[in-house]
Design brief:
Blueprint: H1 2-29, E1 36-41, E2 47-52, E3 55-56, E4 60-63, E5 72-76, E6 78-79, E7 88-94, E8 101-103, E9 109-112, E10 123-132, E11 143-150, E12 158-159, E13 163-169, E14 177-180, E15 183-184, E16 198-203, E17 208-210, E18 216-219, E19 231-239, E20 249-259, E21 272-278, E22 286-290, E23 303-310, E24 316-321, E25 326-331, E26 342-351, E27 365-375, E28 382-383, E29 388-393, E30 401-404, E31 407-408, E32 417-421, E33 431-433, E34 439-442, E35 453-462, E36 469-479, E37 487-488, E38 493-497, E39 511-516, E40 528-530, E41 541-545, E42 550-555, E43 567-575, E44 583-595, E45 601-603, H2 617-644, H3 656-663, H4 717-730, H5 739-743, H6 780-786, H7 789-795
Parallel strand pairs: 4-11, 13-20, 21-27, 29-36, 38-44
Antiparallel strand pairs: 1-2, 3-6, 5-9, 7-10, 8-9, 10-11, 12-15, 14-18, 16-19, 17-18, 19-20, 22-25, 23-26, 24-25, 26-27, 28-31, 30-34, 32-35, 33-34, 35-36, 37-39, 39-42, 40-43, 41-42, 43-44, 44-45
């Protein structure tokens, strides 16, 4: 404790010394108005006049973090006019006045009452003034001064991050910059060495070093290998006071990772790989895998594989699986155990990306020998050709040989072969095949005009192993035979203008015709057009062959008349160029038409001369008959409608149910979804006759409930309903039995009360219906039914 007090006293003295220096500096450099003046020489030798300041004060300092028992004396304020008689009162105002800083109003001494922290606030601005103690009249103008908090080394250095992560390539040169770490000190950097930092490395030697002033971490060893050690942990210290004894320090951790470079070539773990492949394997099938190890990672460890030598280079290939970094040996072409039973390959593995800096480490590739043995397998038969094309003439007789397919067993056993046709490709069963020798024959005549090509598939299977089979496509072309005669290419029709002239028409053809033949071109054109021999000298028309598979029809004469003959049928013979040729006779229709002066067609109808304008008498009679029939139908309909409007049931005037219809106007509630008609309770006898009904008499009869009394005026609704029920049960023409349930149901969802009297006698209602007596004669029956409760009780 004594040592601490001595230190604090020394600091106070040091502070007072600073005060005196500041005071002297303030007296020399600040010009303030004062009551007394003196002279001072300027820089250029001139005499400057300044007023003598009436205050004796300066800029004050106070040490932070002072923890002594007494308040710290910051300084003293004194006025020249203060004679010490106590008439002057010193007043302090501004930041912290009265709370942190207090002043003795007589002596002017300023004390700090609280511990100050420069890192929270570096200075305080205060205002001092001297006033008359009795009158509070200012004796001096107010003056502003500053109290600065003097720093001590009470804050250790702190790094921006607790941990750092950095990367540096492996095998980097010594002195390669890795990362810069930075620490900060909250102490005043302008005062002493409290904030002067020095960096040093605590952990991580001898691999790394740090610059003392900048905090830059650098490599310290050459050829650091990632494959040997990838990650390093370094501890860096920052110490203030320039790194001297007694300074405060802080540390941070830096994780440094060596990044990979391509400094290692790929290497096969063995010199020879043994593989095997079945002769039944198809091209593209995997044979085996090889893998060269490369300790590098990422793109530096990528390896590609190639076949560089060997007798199987044409039959095998190798690809690279970049996910597993393996070389996949695949079959490129089929192999045959009977031909060759073993192959040898030389496979090379090489890096994809090579770093020129490390090319001196050697060739970044390696080779290995791959030996592949061919395994024998039971192979399916093989056709001598991959496909077959055969020809057969159409209309050939069944059993005609089309061609032959041939297959053999490639195995040493040379098993016999059996042939068959895939019936999915020969649904019409046009062909059959000899299962032993493979000869294909027809089963029915073929028509080239329906199908010119037929494609089938033939199976060849070993007799002793039906699972071993082969399939080959066979295309069969149907050759054409001249079996179709030519016909008109279209339904031709000619027109000729009637004329009174006896000379032939112009040289223009009436119509130009052509032909069509379903046979092949060899048996089709050229077509020859002519008239039949029996009408070769037709007086009306002639045919001229144009020798281009067309012909023109011409008129031999003029003077055609529709009244004499309006239609001519001209037979024309068409022959094709096949061997032997075929011909057909086609009929051309030629109509005689009316034309204008320019030869344009007007009408080809023969009735155009005899039809008169307007309607015929028969048509008018038919129209009038239709009108009369329609009028009769309308009259009958109106008559029936009038008869249906008459009432079907005549209600009696004294019928109680009439009152129910009249007054129960609100209908059923929301749940009453069936419309009710009181007429269903009426006995239709004598009104519209009996209505036949086929139903069954109910097994159970409704029994009247006891305790009911007839209403006044001898109107007993209960007896009335029971009577009607019995009549309905015994009357086959009455409505359905369940209609009485509809009569008594009005729904439970209606907000308004019910006016029905069907259930009134069975309830113990306390309602008073005497007011019905005042409603007049129209409501007399309701008043008799409900309005006399006392009478009803007496009767009961």
């Amino acid at each position: 404790m004594k040592e601490n007090y001595c230190l604090q006293a020394a600091l106070v003295c040091l502070g007072m010394l600073c005060h005196s220096q500041a005071f002297a500096l303030d007296r020399r450099s600040h010009l303030r108005p004062s009551f007394h003046g003196h002279h001072e020489k300027g820089k250029e030798g001139q005499v400057l006049q300044r007023s003598k300041r009436g205050w004796v004060w300066n800029q004050f300092f106070v040490i932070e973090e002072y923890t002594g028992p007494d308040p710290v004396l910051v300084g003293r304020l004194h006025s020249d006019i203060d004679s010490g008689d106590g008439n002057i009162k010193y007043i302090l105002s501004g930041e912290g006045a009265g709370t942190i800083f207090v002043i003795d109003d007589k002596s002017g001494n300023i004390h700090a009452t609280k511990t100050l922290d420069r890192e929270e606030r570096a200075q305080y601005t205060l205002m001092a003034q001297a006033v008359d103690r009795d009158t509070n009249r200012p004796l001096e103008p107010p003056s502003e001064f500053i109290v600065k908090v003097q720093d001590i080394n009470d804050n250790p250095p702190e790094f921006l991050h607790e941990t750092y992560h950095a990367n540096v390539p492996e095998r980097s040169n010594v002195g390669t910059s890795v990362i810069q770490v930075t620490a900060s000190d909250a102490d005043d950097p302008t005062y002493g060495n409290s904030a002067k930092l020095v960096y040093s490395i605590l952990e991580g030697q001898p691999y790394f070093s740090v610059e003392a002033q900048t905090g830059i971490i650098r490599t310290a060893l050459p050829n650091m290998d990632r494959e040997a050690k990838e990650e390093y942990h370094v501890v860096i210290q920052a110490k203030d006071m320039g790194g001297h004894m007694g300074g405060l320090s802080g540390t941070t951790k830096v994780t440094i990772t060596l990044t990979d470079v391509n400094d290692n070539p790929p290497k096969f773990p063995q010199s020879v790989y043994q593989m095997s492949v079945s002769e039944a394997a198809v091209p593209g099938e995997e044979v085996g895998r090889v893998k060269a190890k490369d300790p590098d990672i990422g793109e530096n460890g990528l390896v590609t594989y190639n076949i560089v030598d060997g007798d199987g280079m044409e039959l095998f290939e190798i690809t690279t699986d970049y996910e597993t970094q393996e070389g996949v040996v695949k079959l490129k072409k089929p192999v045959d155990f009977e031909t060759k039973r073993a192959y040898s390959l030389k496979v090379e593995a090489a890096n994809v990306h090579i770093d020129p800096k490390f090319i001196s480490n050697g060739p970044f590739k390696d080779t290995v020998t791959v030996k592949i043995a061919v395994e024998d397998a039971d192979e399916p038969p093989m056709f001598l050709a991959p496909s077959y094309i055969h020809e057969v003439q159409e209309n050939a007789a069944p059993g005609t040989v089309v061609g032959r397919v041939h297959a053999k067993d490639p195995d040493a056993a040379n098993s016999p072969i059996r042939y068959s046709i895939d019936r999915h490709t020969d649904l019409d069963r046009f062909f059959t095949i000899n299962p032993e020798d493979g000869f294909i024959k027809t089963t029915k005549p073929l028509d080239r005009e329906e199908t010119a090509w037929l494609n089938i598939s033939v199976f060849a299977a070993e007799i002793h192993n039906r699972h071993q089979e082969a399939k080959v496509p066979v295309a069969i072309r149907v050759l054409d035979v001249n079996d179709n005669a030519p016909k008109f290419a279209a339904p031709y029709e000619g027109f000729i203008c009637e004329s009174d002239q006896t000379k032939p028409h112009s040289n223009q053809p009436i119509v130009t015709i052509s032909a069509d033949d379903k046979d092949d071109t060899a048996n089709g054109p050229r077509f020859i057009f002519s008239l039949p021999p029996e009408i070769i000298h037709n007086p009306n028309f002639t045919v001229r062959d144009n020798r281009d598979n067309t012909a023109g029809v011409y008129a031999r004469r003029g003077g055609f008349s529709r009244q004499k003959q309006d239609l001519y049928l001209l037979p024309i013979v068409i022959s094709d160029g096949g061997i032997p040729p075929m011909s057909s006779t086609n009929t051309l229709t030629i109509k005689v038409c009316g034309c204008d002066v320019n030869g344009a067609l007007l009408s080809c109808n023969a009735e155009a001369y005899i039809l008169n304008a307007g309607l015929s008498t028969g048509a008018l009679i038919a129209i009038l008959a239709c009108i009369v029939i329609l009028l009769v139908i309308v009259v009958l309909f109106v008559t029936l409608r009038r008869q249906k409007k008459e009432p079907l049931i005549v209600f009696e005037e004294e019928d109680v149910r009439e009152n129910i219809i009249t007054y129960d106007d609100e209908g059923g509630g929301e749940e009453d979804t069936e419309a009710f008609d009181i007429a269903t309770l009426q006995n239709p006898d004598g009104i519209n006759g009996f209505i036949p009904r086929k139903d069954i008499k109910p097994e159970y009869q409704y029994m009247p409930r006891p305790g009911l009394r007839p209403a006044p005026n001898s109107v007993d609704v209960d007896d009335f309903i029971n009577t009607r029920i019995q009549e309905a049960d015994n009357d086959p023409t009455a409505p359905p039995y369940d209609s009485i349930q509809i009569y008594g149901y009005e729904g439970r969802g209606s907000v308004a009360g019910s006016l029905s009297s069907l259930e009134s006698a069975t309830t113990d209602s306390d309602l008073d219906y005497d007011y019905l007596q005042n409603w007049g004669p129209r409501f007399k029956k309701l008043a008799d039914l409900y309005g006399s409760k006392d009478t009803f009780d007496d009767d009961s």
